[in-house]
Amino acid sequence: MDLPNPSRLPKNGPVLSYVLVGDEAFQLTSYMMRPYPRVKEGSLTLAKRIFNYRLCRARRGTVCLHNFIKKNEDLLPTIRRRYCHCNIVNTEDGAGQWRNDVPTESFYIISNTRSNAYKKQANVNRQQFTEYFNDEGAVSWQIEKINHPDF
Fold it and tell me: What superkingdom does the record give (predicted)?
């Protein structure tokens, strides 16, 4: 993954890596943050629950930005669209054209080819974000939100 080098957060914050945000479906890697797993109710520390909340907010913000850009781009003539070509995504009208362009025999059944264990650096990166969200990067409402029944 060709992401920018780590950089310092504002106001003399820590140096953190650029990362993508994902949910439990993604593997934790040095460039992909995923939530701490909730094995059972009450199994996560306060710091980990705050990290999960902040990651969830980042994912929701990304989805909102995508939808905003997509909705506004859909108003443009097809030839002027740059964000997402109209034939490669599903629309409310039905499946994207790409589904018809790939022969079904192109898909193979694959098995797990490697361990699901994450690398040490991935855990270090997640821990650094956890510490930041619980210290100088904390926001005033995060404790209230993680204690809300809907979270």
Answer: Eukaryota
Classify residue 151: in a domain, yes or no: no
| Domain, as residue range, for 30 | 7-146
Task: Please tell me the total count of domains within the chain.
Answer: 1
Q: Which residue has the tokens 């490697």?
A: 114
Angle at 58 between CA 34 and CA 29, to 5 degrees: 25
Q: What is the DSSP letter of 53?
A: H
Please state, in angstroms and rounded to a whole number, the distance separating the CA atoms of residues 41 and 54.
19
